[in-house]
Amino acid sequence: MTTTDETPTTADETATDGHARDGGVRLRRAIAEDAGPLTRLFLASRAAAMPYLPKVHSDEDTLAWMTHVVLPGTTVWVAEVGAGNGTGPGEPLGFVSVDGAELEHLYLRPDARRRGIGSLLLDRARRSSAGELTLYVFRRNTDARAFYERHGFTAIAFDDGSRNEEREPDVRYRWTATG
Hints:
This protein has four helices and eight strands. With 179 residues, the protein is α+β, with helices and mostly antiparallel strands.
């Protein structure tokens, strides 16, 4: 399914013809059928990037959360390859979820890191915002913290972990279009 919010793109440039170029990455709005693939991506990403996190929900509960909370309750864009001819969704490489000015989730498949896909997703989230985004990152997730700081986010608060299910200390970040 394509929507007016679709943004076909490669890691370096936006396609002008509305389709992903060979080997290119396409951004599109998530659909309900993405729940399973995005849940698997989410779980794989967290396990690879944050092995220290306790598993507080079963895979089935995580799928239900993706299906009934994330997809219907936030704006979600998927970065994918291998689609674009009206044949349905391609292979997801990552996704970003935004709720107003809150960047709720940005996850990449472990083998899709450091290819510019996270930057594409973040740029899409910024363009959908009203010039400001905030988010939380676990303090120990140094790669994510460095990513957001490289993209102009500033740490504005440090929490002890009592506000999240994992009980893991985190950092609140803010980005504004004006700097």
